[in-house]
Amino acid sequence: MQTINELQLAKELIRYPSITPIDAGVMKFLEKQLRKLGFKTKILEFKEKNTKPVKNLYARLGTKGPNFCYAGHLDVVPAGNLKDWTVNPFRPSIKKGHLIGRGANDMKSSIAAFVSAVSIFVKNNKEFNGSISLLITGDEEGIAINGTKKVVEYLKKRKEKINFCLVGEPTNPNKLGEMIKIGRRGSMTGRLSIIGIQGHVAYPHRANNPSTALVQILKELK
Question: Given 31, 75, 106, 139, which residue is catalytic?
Fold first, then answer.
């Protein structure tokens, strides 16, 4: 089995103008590469009301647990005015050791690197414990409702479990590939109600100022 060159694969992925939610054929291309490595693949298309359909790819090598999943996206943001580019954003080029093209950083190169690493691993390990999977969405840069969330729901219905997940998004603003973060902060929205007791400023001990209680709670939350 031949291994996959990460730079060459990254270039091929960049050539597809997969601007959200347009697939432009990139999912099918990646699916073909993964099948060569022995992955079982499924392209999943989802569509909510008043949205355009989005293609996603789930691929898995192996059937046993634990399931180690790489999560990423192949959609990119619009390139903007092409006159502002020194190169065609969908014709990848190398300049001063850097790969230039739309999606080179976020995040087609990362996907190419993982696939290349898997190809080397598979070549050197005919048998291994567990499974390796990829969950690749085409709806990360958009409204993000027809991508990862729906693929996970699909997997749950099939009673397929992801035990570990590696998200290949760029995380270091200073130097590429130098930082690994454990976990990812989400968001939580809640409503906090404080019931006070009305009183006179001359007799504060008889009152309960809700603002004071709120400050203490916010300090604890911080």
Answer: 75
